[in-house]
Specification:
The complex is a heterodimer of chains A (about 425) and B (about 240). With about 425 residues, chain A is of the alpha+beta class. Chain A contains 17 helices and 10 strands. In chain A, helix 2 packs antiparallel against helix 13, helix 13 runs parallel beside helix 16 and helix 15 runs antiparallel to helix 16. The longest helix of chain B has 17 residues. Classes of the chains: A alpha+beta (about 425), B alpha/beta (about 240). At the A-B interface, helix 1, helix 14, helix 15 and helix 17 of A face helix 3 and helix 4 of B.
């Protein structure tokens, strides 16, 4: 087989039918461009959501699980009796982690750990005027919390350090602050579930860009929260942990659970809704991409088929003058491959341009997400993938007509 | 084979072993058509052709002369019997082997010119030689010009072949058939579509090829003048050779 001469014939065929070549090419171009745009947008959205979810949640959270599913005292006393117990209630147990501060200090010594923040967290009501707004207050060592969540960057007004110098200060989520119509320097009453009241001062407003956090959460000093909940100085309910490698958290959470006997929750479990959304979007990308490429493939198949039918005489003459079946296949396959490569290259360029335009387009997601333009991921990997897809499709679509061409019986055509 | 090489080494010398040597031998060729019903087209055809011989294959329409020619051309492989060319047995070879054999040893001229319309005259002539890959493309180009000169088409070398007249196209087709210096050149009514003047030109070229280059020519023809001018006429009727 002589590829050089096949290439020369293929090139001549393509150049003499420029319009047909261009149309076949544009089919691939369109498919690949759309593939690039779609995958860039969806991967961009996925990454954005994942990042914001990961940023605002700990890699591992240790807490005490309160459940009413425990053996009743009657069953324990008379295990062989037939006992019926209605409306079993949870035991009156404390929700704290015993020796929480000590556990946190121990975990922090591990080399794989980035930071540990023990905290006391509780549901509260914020009263401004007659209507109570429910929210959540976390008593933290704000410097440790900053190490975990980069709080300084998320402060929209006020500042983080003033919490250290204001014993009854709080940092409030921006959506909650807007709902309550308060700003830095305002005072507001906090009511705990047990009925204690405390007047607190807002020293800062923060925004994570996620409504479920910004709309409910407040930070305060640990000692103040312990005080309004009437707990002692070692009372902590949660330990938040960030690790150097987020993937390692998935296994390390189990280690911690076995070590300390408390419930642990890793980030994947906490954000399973986000991650499920990722999977659905990825599936969609694959389905739509395959559809686009199949359509482009049929376009090429059609055009190459027509091409072979138009070129029957030429094929017969080539065979008569000594071109073997493989030569004929290569002549037509090379045409498809050239169409595929050029079409895919053009598609990648157009895909990039469209993605770039989209990435600068304003996009207002309201309070739900804190973004100003479409989140687009520019990843060379997907451009390479588009190229491979484009060329594979054209080879598959071009092979059948090329094979058909090689099977043509020259005698039938030359005899007329 | 030795003979072939001799011939290639010097175009114009008449090879010493040339004349009289057997180049084609067909033995007991039988061929059937199955559509629409079984029908025997060729009945026990046996004949031989020598180097440098100009053969004309004649007969009424439907007598099987074209069918025979396409069997001899190696493109039709569905026959019974034995076909030998250049001392090589061709019956039973694969399509690709036969294509390689055709490329090197056979040249074709058809009734309807059959040049590749997108290519220039020169490219058309060069293609079979490029496929053979025996010479560099520079040498091939030079040889193509020689062959075009032989058919007096060298001035049209760079024209697109679709733009030539029928007679001119047929002469280019002959140049293409000659490019690899084949042992045998086959023609399926090579003058069938040409006017008298062009027919004469083509006939003269064929005669020159046979007698000066010592290449064998087998041509199916309806043209009585063409047949009369050949070295030997093989007449067929109802699938059999009735005189040769």
């Amino acid at each position: 087989m002589n590829l050089k001469i096949s290439l020369q014939i293929a090139k001549t065929h393509l150049l003499t039918k420029k319009r047909q070549t261009l149309i076949a090419m544009l089919g691939v171009t369109f498919g690949i461009a759309m593939f690039i745009v779609m995958i860039s947008v969806i991967k961009g959205v996925n990454k954005f959501l994942e990042d914001s979810a990961l940023d605002s949640s700990p890699h591992i959270r240790i807490y005490k699980e309160i459940t009413s599913n425990h053996p009743s005292i009657i069953e324990e006393a008379n295990p062989s009796n037939f006992n019926i117990i209605y409306h079993q209630l949870p035991k009156n147990e404390l929700i704290n982690i015993k020796n929480g501060l000590q556990i946190a200090a121990n975990i922090e010594k591990e080399p794989v750990i980035l930071g540990v923040s023990p905290q006391i967290s509780s549901q509260v009501f914020f009263n401004k005027g007659p209507v109570p707004f429910s929210g959540q207050i976390s008593g933290v060592d704000v410097l440790k919390e900053d190490k975990l969540y980069d709080l300084k960057k998320r402060i929209k007004s006020g500042n983080l350090e003033s919490l250290l110098s204001t014993p009854n200060g709080i940092l409030m989520g921006k959506v909650l602050a807007r709902n309550l119509n308060v700003k830095v320097g305002d005072k507001i009453t906090v009511t705990t579930p047990t009925g204690n009241l405390k007047l607190v001062k807002i020293v800062g407003i923060f925004g994570f860009g996620i409504q479920t956090v910004d709309g409910v959460k407040c930070y305060a000093n640990m000692s103040m929260v312990q005080e309004i909940l009437q707990k002692d100085k070692s009372f902590v309910t949660d330990i938040h942990i960030k690790m150097k490698d987020s993937q390692a958290a998935l296994t390390y959470a189990k280690v911690l659970k076995n070590q300390y006997g408390y419930k642990t929750q890793d980030w994947a479990e906490a954000n399973s809704a986000f991650l499920a959304g990722d999977k659905i979007r990825n599936g969609m990308v694959i389905m739509v991409s395959i559809t686009l490429l199949v359509v482009a493939g049929f376009g090429i198949y059609n055009i190459m088929n027509m091409n072979v039918i138009n070129k029957m005489k030429d094929i017969a003459i080539l065979k008569a003058t000594g071109f073997a079946g493989n030569d004929i296949v290569s002549i037509f396959l090379i045409q498809s491959i050239i169409i595929g490569i050029l079409g895919a290259l053009l598609g990648i360029i157009i895909g990039f341009c469209l993605s770039y335009l989209l990435s600068s387009m304003p996009f207002d997601a309201g309070d739900f997400l804190d973004i100003k333009t479409f989140p687009i991921l520019f990843e060379p990997k997907y451009y390479g993938l588009g190229m491979i897809f484009g060329i594979t499709t054209t080879i598959l679509a071009g092979y059948m007509p090329a094979r058909k061409a090689s099977k043509i019986d020259p005698v039938a055509i030359l005899r007329g | 084979m030795l003979n072939n090489e001799n011939k290639r080494s010097g175009e114009n010398e008449i090879p010493p072993l040339g004349i009289g040597r057997l180049v084609l031998q067909a033995t007991n060729i039988n061929k059937y058509f199955y559509e629409p019903e079984k029908f025997q087209v060729l009945k026990n055809i046996s004949f031989e052709a020598n180097r440098g011989e100009f053969l004309a294959l004649v007969g009424k329409s439907g007598c099987g002369k074209s069918t025979l020619l396409y069997i001899l051309s190696t493109m039709d492989t569905t026959y019974d019997g034995l076909l030998m060319m250049n001392g090589e047995r061709l019956t039973g070879r694969t399509q690709d082997q036969l294509a390689a054999f055709r490329n090197e040893h056979l040249g074709f001229v058809f009734q309807f010119h059959f040049l590749l319309p997108e290519f220039t005259v020169l490219q058309n002539v060069m293609l079979p030689a490029l496929k053979l890959g025996k010479y560099s493309s520079k040498d091939i180009e030079e040889r193509a010009y020689q062959k075009l000169k032989l058919v007096d088409m060298q001035d049209h070398a760079l024209k697109q072949s679709a733009k030539l007249s029928g007679g001119q196209q047929q002469r280019v087709a002959i140049a293409r058939a000659l490019i690899n210096d084949p042992t045998i050149i086959m023609g399926d009514e090579p003058t069938g579509n040409l006017d008298k003047k062009n027919s004469e030109i083509v006939f003269e070229i064929f005669k020159q090829i046979a007698h000066e280059n010592n290449q064998t020519i087998i041509a199916v023809t309806h043209d009585p003048d063409f047949a009369k001018g050949s070295d030997r006429i093989i007449e067929m009727s109802d699938g059999q050779i009735i005189s040769s």
